[in-house]
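S1.2 Input.
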Amino acid sequence: MNRAGSPRRNPSRTSPPGRSLARPSTRVSILVSQATRASTAKRQRHARVGRTRPGLVLALVCGAQFMMILDLVVVNVALPTMQKDLHLGSSDLQWIVITYGLTFGGFLLLGGRAADLLGRRNVLVAGLSIFTAGSLGAGVAGSLMPLLGFRAMQGLGAAMTAPAALSILTGTFAEGAARNKALGIFGGIAGAGACLGSVVGGLLVGGPGWRWIFLINVPIGIALAGFALYCLPKGGRARRGAADVLGAITVTTGLLGIVFAINKSVDYGWASPTTLGVLAAGAAMLGLFVVVEQQVTSPIIPLSTFRLRTLTTANVVAVLVMGSFFGMAYLGTLFIQQVLGYSPLRAGAAALITAVTSVIVSTVIAARVVGRIGAARTLIVGQAAAATGLLYLARAPQHAGYWTDIAPAYLALGIGIGLSGVAVQIAAFTGVNDKISGLAGGMISTAQEVGAALGIAIIATAAFSASAARGPAGTTRVAAQALAQTIGFHRGALVAAGFSVAAALAAGFLLRPAERTAAPVKPLESKTDPVRRAA
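S1.3 Output.
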């Protein structure tokens, strides 16, 4: 205390002249700044979590998947009109569908690898952009070769989009009931796209014209790409690694060679040098693909992946399931229009019963069935239903009635693809570590698209071969042609039923034992993966 009774100041605590008020003010400013930054960071975190809500992510990937699958089927209804406008031969029609499907399937593996290395969001947006540009080009093409080129461009964009979308979905939902439900919706949307393609195609061909089956993708693709940029946050930095472009080229070329040989066997015969030479070249390219995968540092399909029995067997089953369904979808559309005389719009509406059934089964029933009896048994049930429907179609007369001869079979096909599409997706990811989810997504999508292309080639070839039979003497040329096409349709339905029976047997004898021994794998927590962190 000093003489006046005031407290004595500690000289060491005395502020220098001119700074007695500055330090408290600075401290207040720092505190305010820190509080502001904390509040901003909190709002950003909440915004990021809100933008990556699982529901929004599911809506985005389902929308992308729907557009990819829809475009594989939507052209079927338009084929007769396209043949007339572009002056195409009958054998050219398959390639409008097959070119897209094989490019889609052949580069899906590279797309899955790219999603793991470059980031799922980046690959998804790039794929949607390429697909949209290809759709625009296909919509304005004036001849076959430019059309096939733009169809291949669409397939490349789809090959980037599909595995990235599926990988985003599996990274958002943990393995178990949540993922099964999400995959059920995802598979249901894919099945609906496959079925509604005929309906949408009929509406567009009967309305603004066949070119709009491609042009309609342009605004949808732009909207999905913008929504992806808004909805999905940027991931971590791109991982370093090599892209196995040579592997993608060799497998795609090999598959194209095999499908081309199957397609030309109708004209040249299986024993002709042309057919055997092209078939041998395709097989050689697939053999080269295996050699490439053994030599490169970052193969699109590490051969060790085939040790995952559930993933491997699910791919085998997927080839058979999609081959049966898409092959018969292609053939059925031609039969309904060219033999029964349906208009494009009516032909598209005829497939509506399959679409509605598949959506209901896949979104409401399939995931629950898989949860109770397992993916393999669900596939057996689904393919048994599909085979029943196909055998029913194999007896359809030349003047078939829709409600008596077509609708019951289409109903069974809807049940079959609704159950099988979901079950094969769940089986493929059972026991698969999240680190290779992009690769797994690429493999199962590849199996589906390659199976669809092979199914169209094999089933259509079988049908065209059988159609070589002529009608009885005395019939008109139109009646003889209709009878020949009906005979071909019956043969194609039987071959498709064989695909379904083989899928059911593979599910029972190969997939079921693998499913029982596979251990569920929980997704890994990652500090650099905002999608999974938000989920």
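S1.4 Remarks. Residues 11-32, 38-50, 521-535 have pLDDT under 50 and may be disordered.
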